[in-house]
């Protein structure tokens, strides 16, 4: 495998390999010297057609800890809006000798499109494509759950994870559904029916419209960001009604099992999908997700880039 | 003018014949023609071939005027001839829009100048395809282009009042409104068929109901005002059901299906290759089977290509940014054979009806779609159902290369096309000079 | 193919090295044995057992994965990471003894020195190798050697250990042509 485009492409062994490697990376990140020479001389491009400071700096930190050269390319406006096209941009970066392109794009499938084109020969890492996938986010989520509930090794068999909120538009949800299933966890999607994608009943998940009924069952709950503008498309009547039924507040906190985790991919809408009390509670691992994101991204970069060119990939 | 003797082929119903063509018409058709002129006629080998009336397309985007970089009337005519077509219907969504007598006359004249097939312009229903004010339908009907089909294709005539008035107005000259059935509100930013797959791929879904609700409304309107409705590119099994119901009620509705909707399914979108991005979108296998059944039983009257050339840059991009549409003229016959004849769902006579007779009737193209007999205009397609070929996008006659069939193999091909008694295609290749020059 | 060291030879060599380590460092308290995976890690734990049985006290032992510091990553297929395990108390201010099976070019040890720096700052670093086959490409030498094996570059040295190979032996193979 030369690219990381979707968690659906990962095998069980590959997913575990990434998590195990990330564990080593985390160990180094906790040590006194956070810099490794591993990817010295490699050029990694952060190609962001969509703003996401968090994801960009996480990848940037990961690449720099492995001593790669990092170029940040923020291409405002896609070809749709008559800006620079994906093709031209990719070819430009190819001409500069990029070994890997980390792509964030508002169009679903953009990373796959880039990987299957001849526009670049480097590895493509999907850092979020439209409403499709965000594989490194799911990997860091799995890493966080494994660390807390599985002692940092093995898979997630026997655990139940709820993903709550705007499933319809969430790339984080899609990547998590594939990966959590692959690792043996049971997934419950919780949202108003308008925010559950059509055909989701065919996914390997349970679906519920009732957060209160689900919370006592779960080992971890992932709260998704709800965009205020969804209201204009009639997905739910008002922010207040949404919070009332699907917000994680202090009352709902009490419904959860003692050691269960509260997660959020960020950025949070405090007061909408999650209250400050929940976000800052002892069960919240939201900040740790950020830390783990760097380790997981280091692992992905290592596995995709460290081996001999065109040979890297035996292990992932 | 040169005489031609088509030798060794069979007619759709199976009769083995020779066909003698002179002065643009069929002058003799028999097992062995007896006319002494046959001796000096140019012999066209049609062994193992079927001799069919020239195909008629009711839905063709020729892009001229305005987007001559992706197609012209001339290049589109060449693609049509290669596909066995002797008449095509140029859609109105050009720049400027074909919403005046001037534009439709220009397109018609360009078609006559190219001389490879008849190009019948379709007029816009509303000015600028904006769906608000009716275009000058009467003026277009009375123009030299004699427009009878009106369509805002690309856009749906969504306002029910506008649709009603258009249906009523064209009764004056026996016109027909060809509706692009797509509720624009249910399909805002839509990218592909809505369902399990669109949800997985994270693409905005295009629900079947957005098409079916408009078809349902329009057949009821057509019934109410007793006018003619033509439903462009039906893609859903529900749409077929509604049309079947409407026909049973005696409503004057006709419908078309594209070759790509007879063959391809939404699964191709998993590649995110915009070559498969088309409006209306590719649907499910269940829909494909319903469309084939609908075409076979006559619920769907015609095959229409929705030939939609696009420049390379409109497809060399991410799916969401890409243009909708795919080439269709040069592959239409092979696909209809593969999906309808080779599957034994239709006979060759049925194919001749769906690709020639029925569309000519709907468009009022009286010169076309005639059965092959003495005296009829020699618009002929000669096809070999066992001469296979592989689609190569670099060999298309069209100016654009956006064929989703690149690399695919088909078992049957168009061998020759005669337009007004003159071959435009022989041995599957375009004939360089025409008009006997 | 010839047997350069038998099981008995290996056992004897390790015992000798254990004594040398103790002698040079004045007992087990200041030292940390860090084995380089895969076989160096097994050798380190054997040395630790040996020292424990001599001294009657445990010695600190760990493993040190050097993969991320290798200078030949791009020349070879991707390598999986092996967990680095630092013993309780770390390596800060200790005498660290790196343990590997074969000392050859010295590049592995160079990488190991870098990898150590990521864990802490030891008082000194020493090197124990079961076999020194020569052909150094870097200014590195071993402090404790089981056996010096003069080899040509065309030969290969294979160390087998019962923990993973089922048998204890060191083989020298001459590659044809």
Looking at the structure, what is the overall shape of chain A? globular
Order of helices and strands of chain A: HEHEHEHEHEHEEHEHHEHH
Mean pLDDT figure of chain B: 96
Portion of residues in beta strands of chain A equals 5-15%
Structural class of chain B: alpha/beta
CATH class of the largest domain in chain A: Alpha Beta
Provide the number of structural domains of chain A. 2
- Biggest sheet of chain A: strands side by side, in what order? 7-6-5-8-9
Report what the structure shows.
The complex is a heterotrimer of chains A (316), B (437) and C (177). Chain A has 316 residues and is an alpha/beta fold. Chain A is built from 11 helices and 9 strands. Chain B has 2 domains: 4-51 and 375-430, Roll (Urease, subunit C, domain 1), CATH 2.30.40; 55-363, Alpha-Beta Barrel (TIM Barrel), CATH 3.20.20. The N and C termini of chain B lie close together (9 Å). In chain C, the strands form 2 sheets. Chain C has a 5-stranded parallel sheet with strand order 3-2-4-5-6, with helices on both faces. In chain C, strands 1-8-7 form a 3-stranded antiparallel sheet. In chain C, α2 (39-55) links the parallel β2 and β3 (60-63). In chain C, α1 crosses α2. Chains in contact: A-B, A-C. At the A-B interface, α4 of A face α5 of B.
List keywords for this structure.
heterotrimer, B: 437 residues, alpha/beta, Urease, subunit C, domain 1, TIM Barrel, 2 domains, 20% strand, C: alpha/beta, Rossmann fold, three-stranded antiparallel sheet, 4 helices, 29% helix, globular
Give the helix/strand layout.
The complex is a heterotrimer of chains A (316), B (437) and C (177).
Chain A: H1 12-30, E1 43-48, H2 53-65, E2 69-74, H3 86-95, E3 100-105, H4 110-116, E4 123-129, H5 135-149, E5 160-164, H6 171-182, E6 186-190, E7 206-208, H7 211-214, E8 220-223, H8 239-246, H9 250-253, E9 261-263, H10 276-279, H11 286-305
Parallel strand pairs in A: 1-2, 1-3, 3-4, 5-6, 5-8, 6-7, 8-9
Chain B: E1 4-11, E2 16-22, E3 25-30, E4 42-45, E5 50-53, E6 55-60, H1 73-82, E7 85-90, H2 101-114, E8 118-121, H3 137-142, E9 149-150, H4 160-169, E10 176-179, E11 192-193, H5 196-201, E12 205-206, H6 208-225, E13 229-231, H7 237-248, E14 253-257, H8 259-263, H9 285-297, E15 302-303, H10 332-341, H11 348-363, E16 380-384, E17 389-390, E18 409-410, E19 413-419, E20 422-426, E21 429-430
Parallel strand pairs in B: 1-4, 1-5, 6-7, 7-8, 9-10, 10-13, 11-12, 13-14, 14-15
Antiparallel strand pairs in B: 1-2, 2-3, 5-16, 16-19, 17-18, 19-20, 20-21
Chain C: E1 2-5, H1 7-25, E2 31-35, H2 39-55, E3 60-63, E4 95-103, H3 107-117, E5 124-132, E6 144-148, E7 155-160, H4 162-165, E8 169-174
Parallel strand pairs in C: 2-3, 2-4, 4-5, 5-6
Antiparallel strand pairs in C: 1-8, 7-8
Helix pairs in contact in C: 1-2
């Amino acid at each position: 495998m030369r690219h990381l485009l979707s968690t659906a492409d990962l095998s069980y062994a590959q997913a575990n390999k990434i998590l195990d490697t990330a564990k080593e990376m985390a160990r180094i990140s906790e040590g006194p010297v956070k810099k490794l020479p591993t990817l010295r001389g490699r050029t990694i491009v952060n190609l962001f057609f969509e703003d996401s400071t968090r994801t960009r700096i996480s990848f940037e930190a990961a690449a720099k800890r492995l001593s790669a050269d990092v170029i940040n390319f923020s291409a405002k406006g896609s070809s749709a809006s008559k800006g620079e096209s994906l093709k031209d941009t990719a070819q430009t970066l190819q001409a500069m000798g990029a070994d890997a392109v980390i792509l964030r794009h508002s169009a679903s499938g953009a990373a796959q499109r880039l990987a299957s084109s001849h526009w670049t020969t480097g590895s493509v890492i999907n850092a979020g494509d439209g409403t499709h996938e965000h594989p490194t986010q799911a990997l860091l989520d799995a890493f966080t759950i494994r660390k807390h509930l599985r002692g940092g090794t093995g898979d997630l068999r026997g655990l139940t994870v709820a993903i709550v909120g705007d499933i319809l538009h969430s790339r984080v949800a899609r990547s998590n559904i594939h990966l959590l299933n692959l690792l043996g966890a049971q997934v419950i999607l919780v949202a108003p029916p308008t925010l559950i994608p059509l055909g989701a009943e065919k996914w390997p998940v349970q679906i519920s419209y009732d957060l209160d009924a689900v919370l006592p069952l779960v080992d971890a709950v992932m709260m998704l960001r709800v965009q205020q503008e969804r209201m204009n498309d009639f997905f739910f009547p008002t922010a207040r009604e949404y919070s009332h039924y699907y917000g994680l507040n202090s009352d709902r906190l009490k419904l959860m099992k003692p050691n269960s985790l509260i997660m959020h991919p960020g950025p949070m809408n405090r007061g909408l999908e999650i209250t400050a009390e929940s976000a800052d509670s002892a069960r919240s691992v939201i900040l740790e997700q950020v830390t783990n994101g760097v380790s997981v991204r280091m692992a992905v970069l290592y596995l995709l880039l460290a081996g001999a060119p065109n040979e890297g990939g035996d292990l992932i | 003018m040169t005489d031609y003797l088509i030798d060794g082929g069979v007619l759709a119903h199976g009769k083995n014949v020779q066909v003698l063509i002179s002065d643009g018409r069929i002058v003799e058709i028999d097992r062995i023609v007896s006319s002494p002129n046959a001796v000096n006629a140019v012999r066209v080998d049609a062994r193992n071939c079927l001799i069919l009336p020239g195909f008629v397309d009711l839905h063709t985007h020729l892009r001229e005027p305005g987007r001559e970089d992706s197609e012209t009337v001339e290049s589109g005519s060449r693609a049509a001839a290669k596909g066995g077509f002797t008449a095509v219907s140029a859609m109105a969504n050009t720049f400027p829009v074909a919403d005046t007598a001037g534009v439709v006359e220009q397109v018609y004249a360009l078609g006559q100048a190219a001389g490879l097939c008849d190009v019948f312009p379709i007029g816009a229903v509303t000015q600028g395809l904006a769906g608000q004010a009716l275009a000058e339908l009467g003026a277009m009907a009375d123009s030299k282009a004699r427009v009878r089909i009106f369509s805002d294709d690309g856009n749906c005539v969504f306002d029910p009042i506008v649709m009603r008035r258009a249906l009523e107005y064209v009764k004056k000259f026996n016109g027909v409104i060809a509706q692009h059935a797509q509720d624009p509100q249910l399909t805002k930013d839509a990218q592909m068929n809505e369902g399990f797959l669109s949800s997985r791929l994270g693409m905005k879904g295009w629900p079947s109901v957005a098409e079916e609700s408009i078809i349902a409304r329009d057949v009821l309107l057509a019934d109410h005002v007793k006018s003619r409705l033509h439903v462009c590119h039906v893609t859903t099994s529900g749409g077929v059901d509604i049309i079947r119901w409407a026909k049973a009620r005696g409503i004057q509705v006709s419908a078309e299906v594209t070759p790509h909707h007879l063959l391809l399914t939404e699964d191709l979108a998993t590649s995110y290759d915009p070559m498969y991005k088309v409006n209306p979108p590719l649907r499910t296998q269940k829909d494909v089977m319903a469309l084939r059944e609908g075409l076979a039983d006559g619920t769907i009257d015609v095959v229409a290509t929705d030939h939609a050339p696009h420049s390379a840059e409109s497809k060399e991009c991410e799916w969401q940014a890409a243009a909708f549409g795919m080439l269709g003229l040069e592959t239409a016959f092979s696909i209809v054979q593969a999906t309808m004849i080779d599957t034994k769902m239709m006979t060759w006579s049925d194919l001749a009806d769906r690709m020639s007779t029925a569309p000519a009737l709907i468009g009022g193209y009286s010169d076309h779609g005639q059965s092959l007999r003495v005296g009829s205009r020699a618009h002929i397609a000669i096809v070999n159902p066992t001469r296979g070929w592989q689609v190569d996008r670099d060999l298309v006659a069209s100016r654009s290369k956006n064929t989703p069939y690149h690399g695919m193999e088909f078992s049957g091909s168009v061998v020759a096309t005669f337009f007004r008694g003159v071959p435009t295609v022989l041995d599957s290749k375009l004939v360089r000079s025409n008009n006997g020059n | 193919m010839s047997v350069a060291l038998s099981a008995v030879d290996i056992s004897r060599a390790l015992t000798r090295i254990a004594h040398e380590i103790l002698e040079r460092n004045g007992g087990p308290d200041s030292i940390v044995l860090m084995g380089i995976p895969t076989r160096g890690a097994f050798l380190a734990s054997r040395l630790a057992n040996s020292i424990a049985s001599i001294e009657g006290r445990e010695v600190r032992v760990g493993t040190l994965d050097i993969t991320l510091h290798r200078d030949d990553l791009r020349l070879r297929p991707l390598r999986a990471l092996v967990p680095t395990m630092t013993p309780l108390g770390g390596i800060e201010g200790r005498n660290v003894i790196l343990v590997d099976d074969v000392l050859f070019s010295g590049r592995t040890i160079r990488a190991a020195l870098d990898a150590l720096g990521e864990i802490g700052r030891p008082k000194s670093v020493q090197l124990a190798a079961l076999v020194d086959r020569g052909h150094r490409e870097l200014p590195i030498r071993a402090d404790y050697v089981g056996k010096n094996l003069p080899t040509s570059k065309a030969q290969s040295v294979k160390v087998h250990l019962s923990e993973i190979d089922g048998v204890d032996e060191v083989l020298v193979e001459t590659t044809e042509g």
